[in-house]
Amino acid sequence: MSKRQIKTDTSEETIRLAEKLAVLLEPGDVLTLEGDLGAGKTTFTKGIANGIGVSRTVNSPTYTIVKEYEGELPLYHMDVYRLEDSDEDIGFDEYFNGKGISVVEWAQFIVEYLPENRLDIKISNLDENSRMIEFYPHGAHFKTVIAELIG
Ligand code: ADP
Ligand code: MG
């Protein structure tokens, strides 16, 4: 297995899928989200947050790069879009090796800081409310997670 995909037809379906994924995650897991503006990266992150027991509302962290949320596991929500033309390291290692779940929007801009073991997720617009969500698990743990999520 190198890639699995699921189509969702509403944002609620995307959130539910992310919630199901979230309960399979472990401290220190890193997820990346790639997709155009409006694809659903932040929507997917809201589902991850719900699934790990974050009660605050998750909003786009565009102007802060990282937002931390308390939950059963902490959530580190990053939007690194503004790092496109820089190689600034905002202390990624501490997040990626921390106890929380890291979710990185626009992770293609910080590939050099990403851990080898991670779950890459690509969201594509099919039409106004449909999205194709592709999972690229790297490492044994995430291959197991995706097998459990998708079967
Ligand atoms: P991004 O973070 O990728 O820029 P957002 O999650 O902020 O995207 O926005 C996605 C928008 O698309 C939201 O307004 C959401 O309600 C809408 N949407 C419609 N259908 C879907 C779907 N199937 N999955 C996710 N979002 C959807
Ligand atoms: Mg976003």
Task: Kindly estimate the percentage of residues that lie in beta strands according to DSSP.
Answer: 25-35%
Strand order of the largest sheet: 1-7-6-2-5-4-3
Shape: globular
**Oligomeric nature of the chains:** single chain
Instruction: Name the helicity range.
Output: 25-40%
Helix and strand sequence = EHEHEEHEEEH
The count of domains is 1
Instruction: Profile the largest sheet.
Output: 7 strands, mixed
Radius of gyration: 14 Å
Overall number of strands: 7
How does CATH name the architecture? 3-Layer(aba) Sandwich
Uncertain runs: none
Give the bound compounds.
adenosine-5'-diphosphate, magnesium ion
Number of helices: 4
Search tags:
seven-stranded mixed sheet, 26% strand, alpha/beta, binds magnesium ion, 151 residues, binds adenosine-5'-diphosphate, 4 helices, Rossmann fold
List the helices and strands and how they pair.
Blueprint: E1 4-8, H1 11-22, E2 30-34, H2 41-51, E3 66-69, E4 75-79, H3 92-96, E5 101-105, E6 118-125, E7 131-138, H4 140-150
Parallel strand pairs: 2-5, 2-6, 4-5
Antiparallel strand pairs: 1-7, 3-4, 6-7
Helix pairs in contact: 1-2
Bound molecules: adenosine-5'-diphosphate and magnesium ion.
Subcellular location: Cytoplasm
Family: Belongs to the TsaE family.
Pfam families: TsaE
